[in-house]
Records
---
Amino acid sequence: EVQLVESGGGLVQPGESLRLSCAATGFPFYTYWMAWVRQAPGKGLEWVASINQDRSEIYYVDSVKGRFTISRDNAGASLYLQMNNLRAEDTAVYYCARCGRGGVWYYYGMSVWGQGTTVTVSS
Amino acid sequence: SYVLAQPPSVSVAPGKTAKITCGGDNIGSKSAHWYQQKPGQAPVLVVHNDNDRPSGIPERFSGSNSGNTATLTISRVEAGDEADYYCQVWDSRSHHWVFGGGTKLTAL
């Protein structure tokens, strides 16, 4: 079964750090672009970061640049999001998502999503 | 930055056809995707690449994309289709994924 399972969320104070993990099973993880998407309470979806198969292409939404780092371990089929200097506005459910592969990988959208992990930043 | 605009809500009677629009500058030149999200659940991809359906998605869901508007069409709407729907594109200029603000579909 194709599956993504996130972990690592929790309650932290502003300025603190958190590392999210996403374990992938049921598909060749190393062949796919991957992404993190978040959803603040009662709000819409917001893309956070993307990474290609060999980590040569990494992109971030402007609001997290310099604070968040996306990474992947292809051997362990895992995706990560290191979040530093967290702010109240980072409070959200964070989803791990599988994107496409190949030359037009963006034609496929995000076809597999995890169940999400909740990050709450509050003093 | 690239922006996608969706109506906040769309209402339709069960059995009728719902159309949810997604406006963006020359969006017809991009590949548009649509997601369905029910309360407390993760999003589900219902249409990718303008009008392709992932396996398991009913034929009632279809899409189109031309000019400045992409459209998700849901035929013979059922109560179970009530959800938030989001459009999405990849902006190759900024290397960003962009989501629309979402549309809440209500089956009256």
---
Amino acid sequence: AQSVAQPEDQVNVAEGNPLTVKCTYSVSGNPYLFWYVQYPNRGLQFLLKYITGDNLVKGSYGFEAEFNKSQTSFHLKKPSALVSDSALYFCAVRDLWTYNTDKLIFGTGTRLQVFP
Amino acid sequence: ETGVTQTPRHLVMGMTNKKSLKCEQHLGHNAMYWYKQSAKKPLELMFVYSLEERVENNSVPSRFSPECPNSSHLFLHLHTLQPEDSALYLCASSQGTSGGAYEQYFGPGTRLTVT
């Protein structure tokens, strides 16, 4: 079965500094990988996805993620963090549920705290 | 968040009550989902509807009963719930469910408390 792991429960970073939220995956075959963000009292919002092609994927709100096949990682990055980036971030991987239905397997989430 | 809406946003119910959660998507998508989000646990997929046909998930207790009358609306009917069912219930939709990496769009959720 496919899976993702987010090794850090929380990441703290100062505003203006670069941020990285880590995700590693375990799949058979080619991975389809996603990042979502959840702000307080809100649902999850899609940030970006990797299907194929360039290893550096650009997404919403200035975020990007780097796919690294040799390290089986898909880390989320941003060059300069904002206080408003403080939220819960989820990595996800596509898996098969039935022969014609996919599902997303989510990680346990990483809370990002950006300090002024 | 006007793409996927959920009502009510908060619900408190006793274990003998019957209530329903409602979800509506305005994105023209063909698939809809119910998820359960509990503290300290990964997001749990409960049900998927694709073109109004349900994909079964046998691990979900029968006290949860989904209904999808059309591709824009999804309900989750609740009866005789347990306190451990207290959680945030999220609805999502996507363009499709297979053959592609379709991202899902989520509603704001219903915070359910079972007393």
